[in-house]
Design goal:
- The protein has about 110 residues and is mostly helical.
- The two termini are about 25 Å apart.
- The chain has one domain: Arc Repressor Mutant, subunit A.
- Helix 2 crosses helix 5.
- A 3-stranded antiparallel beta sheet has the order 1-3-2.
- The chain is about 60% helix and about 10% strand.
Length: about 110
Amino acid sequence: MANAHQKKALIVRRSKLEIYVGILEILARARNFASHKSMNLSQLTHKTDISQKVLKQHLNFLVRQNLVEKQNLGKDETFYAITERGLKMLYIVSPIIKEARKTSPLLY
């Protein structure tokens, strides 16, 4: 059984790029397979395993870059969807991230 120090050593921080790509991948899957094509903050928090506070910061960045669209559907009804630009960027960056994970044990 691993002790606390060994467990902590196994935890690897994801880079911001990996987090952004992860968010975009989740939104792309929602676009392809869900009837709503967008997700709210609670759904994204659950799927990404990132706190709402931190996730909001990442989403705001992605919105400013026109990679994600923020959809306000009324009071406390905000949804996020990947844009065409986000899909194009994901198509280019995802294979690079996957290849980097193969070659570097620190990336996952």
